[in-house]
Amino acid sequence: MLEGFTDERVEVADGVVLRVRVGGEGPPVVLLHGHPRTHATWYRVAPLLVAAGSRVVLPDLRGYGASTAPAPRADHAQASKRAMAADVVALLRSLGHESFAVVGHDRGSYVALRCALDHPGAVARLTVVDGVPIGEALRRADARFAEAWWHWFFYARPDLPERAIDADVDAWYRLDGRARAQMGEAFDDVRAALHRPEVVRAMLEDYRAGLGVDRAHDDADRSAGRTVACPVQVLWSARDDLVDLYGDVLAVWRPWVSGALTGAPVESGHHVAEEAPEELARLLLEHLRG
Questions:
Q1: Exposure winner among 91, 231, 270, 286, fewest CB in 10 A?
Q2: pLDDT tens sequence across 36-70
């Protein structure tokens, strides 16, 4: 998997070390995974971007995979998207890049957005896949949202989710033959991470931060009128529920973007990097090349 990529450990904050794989030469692009994946989810997409002339950076976000899982704080700020975004910027700077493109899927899309809002001089282009800003999602949350995305609220409960998940990780995340077929070579990397209780706890802290500190950051930005000035691409899986929940996905994003905004569906289920890597890579390259 990811032949030709280096496999490194990079300290990005006090006590926080990210596992990262890096490959290729050219303009840098960092790909940010979602829950409950690791950097390995991109293993089919990343080589296509490298072949097209990009330097591709694949971190495990803090708390995920083999990266540091910081000890929980009462306000869960150690798992905030602001902290994760600062990690990403520090990582890219350590690799010699002051400016880069960022792509985020699922939970990674919130980190990608926070990179662009908190570090506008660092992010040249932004792509979000299968996500709207956390503040927007919670502002629109209704019974239909709660039924479909119940895990947001269950994961935010103290202690109980850890007990339920750790009791049988394979059953909870359906790590069976079907999952192995979908994830392919990423399966073993993801499964190994999920069998570490500290990773499960850190992933839940991600959701706890989402309902509190992350929402507060989003709401503060909206109140202050902060927007993303760089070109923004929004992609969504045609067989997922983003359109069902939000209708015009680009209309949700429009108030957040002062620059160019484009978007398109991808014929795929939610885990688009694994299910439709060629189509995803094609759309990403269209955006990256401007």
A1: 286
A2: 999 999 999 999 999 999 999 999 999 999 999 99
Active site annotation includes 287: no
The active-site residue, picked from 118, 166, 219, 270, is 270
Annotation marks residue 106 as catalytic: yes
Beta-sheet pairing, 123-129 with 261-266: unpaired
- Reported as type and span, the H/E element at residue 8 is strand 6-13
Query: Does residue 1 surpass a pLDDT of 90?
Result: no
Is the Cβ–Cβ distance between 88 and 115 less than 8 Å? yes
**The overall pTM is greater than 0.70:** yes
- The residue annotated as part of the active site, out of 60, 106, 214, 221, is 106
> CA 120, CA 115: separation in Å to the nearest integer?
7
DSSP, collapsed to helix, strand or coil, labels residue 168 as coil
What domains appear along the chain, each with residue ranges and CATH number?
Answer: 6-288 (3.40.50.1820)
Sheet holding 28-32, edge to edge: 6-13, 16-23, 55-59, 28-32, 100-105, 123-129, 232-237, 261-266
Q: 166 CB contacts (<8 Å, ≥6 apart)?
A: 197, 200
Structural tokens at position 241: 């529920």
- Taking residues 207-226, report their average pLDDT: 97
